[in-house]
TrEMBL record:
InterPro entries: AKR, Aldo/ket_reductase_CS, NAD(P)_OxRdtase_dom_sf, NADP_OxRdtase_dom. Keywords: NADP, Oxidoreductase. This is Aldo/keto reductase. It comes from the Bacteria. PROSITE patterns: ALDOKETO_REDUCTASE_1, ALDOKETO_REDUCTASE_2, ALDOKETO_REDUCTASE_3. Residues 17-262 form the NADP-dependent oxidoreductase domain. Belongs to the aldo/keto reductase family. It comes from Streptomyces glomeratus.
């Protein structure tokens, strides 16, 4: 494969770059995922709330790629926190995907005000023990939520998928993950394409390497050790976003991008977000 793996804390290999499908309607997901698989992506990031697990599953089935060569992530939605609800929601996701197991199952949001993420994660541990998820982890957990989880459960999350891009560099979270052996996966790695890709410093680095701003930003993440899951439904961009393993940024480029941090979120604050 053209994408090198990250070795997760349980030994499972996860491609460092995958394809995100948030906001891709179910009937377009099959085509978008098929395009991505053809371009060489082997990791797909979906979620129950995205409403496109069936489309993703159809593309996976139609691809003819051996199951063991694919890495499928899905996520438990907020309305399904709690032990029994989680087991039921997981069954539904597997059925929609048409799979016997997922590679990674994530708690989508911590919902600290509801206080159910420990119980929810205990159901994840059961799913993991049964071999129906090859790895389990979380998304949008702040270090304080991870501390609570680590104190009350036994399987250290393999991954925390958090918002991260040059305008939100997550230094505290990344340091904490590194200490605990949790891989950092960046969502909205391109800052949702909103403005970030026109920032002069990024455009200048792109010109210097004869690459696109999106490729430069993805390269920055990869060189920091992040897992990335850029999204596009445009075939040329889907292909462009995976052509990032044949060049590298130098120390100066990395520093120039790291200087762009504004600690500015595009998405909700995990401490208060509780949409059901
Ligand atoms: P992203 O940062 O991947 O940006 C995607 C947008 O950037 C596209 O819609 C397009 O407008 C633009 N774009 C993509 N490739 C481009 C290119 N080569 N050139 C120019 N513009 C380009 O944003 P995202 O979709 O929010 O995040 C990626 C994935 O992360 C999602 O699809 C989803 O799988 C995941 N995600 C997870 C959470 C979570 O709570 N866990 C939240 C948001 C997203």
């Amino acid at each position: 494969s053209k994408v090198p793996p990250i070795i997760l804390n349980n030994g499972v290999e996860m491609p460092q770059l995958g394809f995100g499908v948030w906001q891709v309607p179910d009937d377009e997901a099959e085509t978008a995922v098929a395009t991505a698989l053809e371009a060489g992506y082997r990791s797909i990031d979906t979620a129950a709330i995205y409403g496109n697990e069936e489309g993703v599953g159809k593309a996976v089935a139609a691809s003819g790629i051996p199951r063991q060569d694919l890495f499928v992530t899905t996520k438990l939605w907020n309305s399904d926190h709690g032990y029994d609800a989680t087991l039921r929601a997981f069954d539904t996701s597997l059925e929609k995907l048409g799979l016997e197991y997922v590679d990674l199952y994530l708690i989508h949001w911590p919902l600290p005000s509801r206080g159910l993420f420990v119980e929810t994660y205990k159901a994840f541990e059961k799913i993991y023990a049964d071999g129906r998820a090859k790895a389990i982890g979380v998304s949008n957990f702040l270090p304080e939520h991870l501390r609570t989880l680590l104190a009350a459960t036994s399987v250290i999350p393999a991954v925390n998928q958090i918002e991260m891009h040059p305008h939100l560099q997550q230094h505290g979270a990344r340091d904490f993950h590194a200490e605990q052996g949790i891989a950092t996966e960046a969502w909205s790695p391109l800052g949702q394409g909103r403005g970030l890709l026109e920032v002069p410093a990024i455009v200048a680095i792109a010109q210097k390497h004869n690459r696109t701003p999106a490729q430069v930003v993805l390269r920055w993440h990869l060189q920091l050790g992040n897992i990335v899951i850029p999204k596009s439904v445009t075939p040329s961009r889907i292909r462009e976003n995976i052509e990032v393993f044949d060049f590298s940024l130098d120390t100066e480029d990395m520093a120039a991008i790291s200087a762009l941090n504004e600690d500015r979120r595009l998405g909700p604050d995990p401490a208060t977000f509780d949409m059901a």
